[in-house]
Amino acid sequence: MPARRLLPIVFAGIAAVPIPACLHVSGAVTPQEQFPKASNSSDFASFPKRPGELVAKNPGTTASKPPTPETTEPKEPTPPPLTDPHLIRASEPVSIPPIAIPSATEPPLLATLRAYLENRPDDAIKLLQSLDRGNQDFALALLPVLVRGTQMNLANANPEEVAVLVDQLHAVAGRLEPKAALRVEKVAFCRRMSGFGRYEPWSEGQPYKPNDLAVLYVELRNIGSEPVAGPAGETYLCRAIVSLEVRDATGNLVEQTDPADWRRRVPVARFEHADHTRSPLHDYSRTYRISVPAQPGVYTVTVEVKDPSGRRVARSQPAEFRVAGP
Q1: 302 with 245: CB under 8 angstroms?
Q2: Are residues 164 and 227 in the same domain?
Q3: Kind and range of the H or E run holding 150
Q4: CB neighbours of 79 closer than 8 A, spacing ≥ 6?
Q5: 3-state DSSP: the chain helix, strand, coil percent, rounded to 5?
Q6: Model pTM?
Q7: 143 membership: H or E segment, kind and range
Q8: 254: exposed, middle or buried (Cβ count in 10 Å: 0-12, 13-18, 19+)
Q9: CA-angle at 183, arms to 258 and 322, nearest 5°
Q10: 46 belongs to a structural domain
Q11: Max alpha carbon distance in the chain (Å)?
């Protein structure tokens, strides 16, 4: 059938279809009225599916949610200004200042020991200059011994090398002995004495006879020796003052013969020693004779030693002896 004959039929069919009343248009419709406004903001739209939910039109951009009476929260009060400069608020981005770390200063002794281990003795001497002279001498004398002793095999060492260490240690001890506290190491009654530590002890419990002579053996420590020229070419001098006190059972002093004058009687026997030697003394011992009291009973003797300056003093424990009756 020709197309021009079909056109009247098509138009007639369209006119026969009824038009619903809800689609009745009474006026011209503008493009803005085709869709209702979503909200007051141009960046959000409202969907009937979830009432009240606002969704950004452009998800790729950041938009702020418009305040509504239902969702607006009360504003927090502005916090007062901080007065302490060391406090910050958690919400404030603050750059943390760098922590100042003080530079560690190596002690002179540790630096000196390191110099000795690295074979730099000149640097070690310079590092000790901050110490007192006595401390410098002590460190310079002891550090080589310490370093050498730790480097050698002491379990299987050469005797000659050990002898060198011993001499060096004795030299260090010799410098300290005149400053060390005095010690009365031993007080013992004996029959006779032939040297340091060599004596024949008196029989324990055996009493003396009245007016007899008792021999007392005494060992002393840290007496020390001074570098002093003697009358016969000696090079050292050892000095000490020793006093003997004899007391009866009630604690009263018993007079003794004066060591300086045998015709006199004194409460305390006092002996002044000045021994010239060609080598420094490390072991010091003496024997003293005590006048045994005339009355029978139990007695004690106490030994006191001091240096000539009187700064160093030491006393022994009382040593007991007995005097038999007639």
Answers
A1: yes
A2: no
A3: helix 133-151
A4: 89
A5: 25, 30, 45
A6: 0.62
A7: helix 133-151
A8: buried
A9: 50
A10: no
A11: 181
The answer to whether 210 and 294 have CB atoms below 8 angstroms apart is: yes
- Has residue 192 been placed in a domain? yes
Structure tokens at 223: 């007496």
What are the pLDDT digits (tens) for 271-307? 999 999 998 888 899 999 999 999 999 999 999 999 9
**Structural domain total, the chain:** 2
Map residue 157 onto helix, strand or coil.
coil
Tokens of 66: 């418009």
> What is the spatial distance between Cα 288 and Cα 240, in angstroms, rounded to a whole number?
14
Cα–Cα distance for residue pair 203/218, rounded to 1 Å: 17
Within 10 Å of residue 144's Cβ, how many Cβ atoms? Answer: 16
Tell me 23's DSSP state.
Answer: G
- Tokens 């007392």 belong to 216
Q: How many residues does the chain have?
A: 326
Q: Are residues 161 and 203 in the same domain?
A: no
Instruction: Indicate the burial class of 49 (C-beta count within 10 angstroms; 0-12, 13-18, 19 or more).
Output: exposed
Helix axes 108-117, 133-151, angle to 10 degrees: 40
The list of the chain residues with pLDDT below 50 reads 10, 17, 21-26, 29, 32-35, 38-48, 63, 100-103
| Residues 233 and 268 occupy one common structural domain | yes
Q: How far apart are CA 43 and CA 184, in angstroms?
A: 104
Q: Encode pLDDT of 231-266 as tens digits.
A: 999 999 999 999 999 999 999 999 999 999 989 999
* Cα–Cα distance, 166 to 175 (Å, whole number): 14
Structure tokens at 145: 């011994």
Q: Print the domain residue range for 281.
A: 183-323
User: How far is residue 15 from each of residues 10, 19, 147, measured CA to CA in Å?
Assistant: 9, 9, 122
